């Protein structure tokens, strides 16, 4: 068994205690034995505790794992494709597209949208609008990808799209009501707790499909590490590969942002943590490690957010930079960019 495989097994095993911590700790103190009894269906005590574990903490922990894995793998794919250690899911404006969709609903329509005879309100309206905004940006990037051959130029196009979306959000904020601005600000802080148990299957299906697609690209990604010309000599269609990576990262980022809000630094920092842990760029080991590490980091962040207990929950995007920024600073100083 190789070193990378052993490291991945250890990381996968570490998810179990982290998952248990997220179920056992929160604003309400619930003994671990009762949490276990609730999960296996042998609990006959306080109904409120059962509701908290099954309808709040369990979907929140599952959501954290799915979101962390999605963003982390998206960051890894983009860093490999563009040979840039500072590339992340937000670099192409996909996060900004999702944010613009949410802003339109929350700031212009008061939190609800109507299409024909169908009316969506609350979380579902924001979810639909955020996903639509992210997919719209992804499709726009695919159009530009067919016009621009240079990866650097496509990177710049993505950044410009992000700026345009941010400008539109600023204008919407300026003309919005105080209540609308507050709702959008809360959404923008990021949250793993907004997804219900009934919505988990949809989120999981998109995430698993995207991660499976990423695993199928291991060989061409490894070839790309040696340079585009070398990869093409090995039979890799680099343009097609770039478009596939845009679709995969777009879907993963769109679903994660739509369900959880714009989460900072996980997609940027986790791939570097995996590289430093394994000391390899081989995607055969690196992609599984990034999936497990992303899930673990998201669970840790979610757990830290609940530490105040009865005094409230810390916003998620107040924690992720504290964990992610030191990693990026270390990478920059070590490589002396």
Question: Mind explaining what this structure looks like?
Answer:
- With 337 residues, this protein is an all-alpha fold.
- The protein is 73% helix and 2% strand.
- The protein contains 14 helices and 2 strands.
- It has helices at 3-24, 32-39, 47-81, 94-108, 122-147, 151-175, 178-188, 200-216, 218-224, 228-233, 238-260, 266-278, 283-305, 320-335; strands spanning 112-115, 118-121.
- A two-stranded antiparallel sheet has the order 1-2.
- Strand 1 (112-115) and strand 2 form a beta hairpin.
Note the topology.
Elements: H1 3-24, H2 32-39, H3 47-81, H4 94-108, E1 112-115, E2 118-121, H5 122-147, H6 151-175, H7 178-188, H8 200-216, H9 218-224, H10 228-233, H11 238-260, H12 266-278, H13 283-305, H14 320-335
Antiparallel strand pairs: 1-2
Could you give the order of strands across the largest sheet? 1-2
Approximate helicity band = over 70%
How many individual β-strands?
A: 2
Specify the overall morphology: globular
Features:
mainly alpha, 337 residues
Concise synopsis of the structure shown:
The protein is mostly helical and 337 residues long. It is 73% helix and 2% strand.
């Amino acid at each position: 068994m190789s070193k990378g495989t052993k490291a991945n097994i250890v990381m996968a095993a570490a998810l179990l205690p982290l998952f248990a911590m997220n179920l056992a700790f929160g604003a309400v103190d619930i003994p671990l034995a009762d949490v276990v009894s609730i999960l296996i269906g042998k609990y006959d005590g306080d109904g409120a505790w059962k509701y908290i574990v099954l309808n709040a903490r369990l979907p929140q922990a599952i959501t954290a794992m799915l979101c962390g894995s999605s963003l982390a793998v998206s960051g890894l794919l983009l860093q490999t494709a563009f040979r840039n250690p500072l590339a992340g899911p937000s670099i192409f404006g996909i996060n900004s597209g999702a944010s613009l969709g949410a802003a339109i609903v929350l700031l212009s329509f008061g939190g609800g949208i109507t299409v024909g005879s169908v009316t969506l309100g609350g979380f579902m309206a924001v979810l639909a609008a955020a996903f639509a905004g992210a997919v719209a940006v992804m499709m726009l990037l695919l159009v530009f990808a067919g016009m621009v051959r240079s990866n650097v130029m496509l990177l710049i196009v993505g950044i410009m799209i992000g700026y345009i979306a941010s400008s539109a959000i600023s204008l919407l904020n300026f003309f919005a009501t105080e209540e609308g601005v507050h709702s959008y600000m809360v959404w923008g802080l990021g949250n793993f707790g907004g997804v219900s148990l009934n919505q988990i299957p949809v989120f999981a299906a998109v995430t698993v499909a995207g991660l499976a697609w990423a695993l199928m690209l291991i060989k061409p990604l490894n070839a790309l590490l040696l340079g585009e010309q070398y990869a093409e000599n090995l039979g890799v269609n680099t343009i097609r590969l770039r478009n596939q990576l845009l679709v995969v990262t777009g879907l993963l980022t769109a679903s994660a942002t739509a369900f959880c809000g714009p989460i900072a630094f996980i997609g940027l920092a986790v791939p570097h943590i995996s590289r430093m842990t394994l000391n390899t760029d081989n995607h055969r080991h690196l992609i599984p490690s990034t999936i497990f590490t992303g899930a673990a980091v998201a669970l840790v962040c979610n757990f830290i957010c609940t530490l105040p207990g009865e005094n409230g929950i810390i916003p998620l995007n107040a924690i992720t930079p504290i964990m992610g920024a030191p990693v990026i600073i270390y990478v920059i100083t070590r490589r002396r960019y």
